[in-house]
Design goal:
It is built from four helices and no strands. It is mainly α. It starts with a helix and ends in a 13-residue tail after the last helix.
């Protein structure tokens, strides 16, 4: 098994574990996973081709759809529909 595939599988297990944490504890490891994902997606694309990379991107967007939606709206200056009290 290639290193990129092994790390991608471990990334998925880590993301699943983080999703089971309480919301206030999800942020720090979630940000690390969010930052590591593009590197893994590009690496998978390099090793297995653009179709594998596209599949990994689809899985990533599916798993992180709410944080990505939040940051997209925040960067565009729109209402996020989220308040800091939601973390308590």
């Amino acid at each position: 098994m290639s290193t990129s595939l092994l790390l991608a599988a471990l990334w998925v297990l880590a993301a699943t574990g983080v999703a089971m944490l309480p919301m206030r504890r999800q942020f720090p490891p979630g940000v690390l996973l969010l930052a590591a994902a593009p590197v893994l997606i590009i690496w998978l694309g390099y090793d297995f081709g653009w179709i594998a990379s596209l599949g990994a991107l689809a899985a990533f967007v599916s798993m992180f759809r709410n944080p990505l939606r939040y940051y997209w709206r925040k960067w565009r200056g729109l209402e996020t529909g989220f308040s800091p009290e939601d973390l308590k």
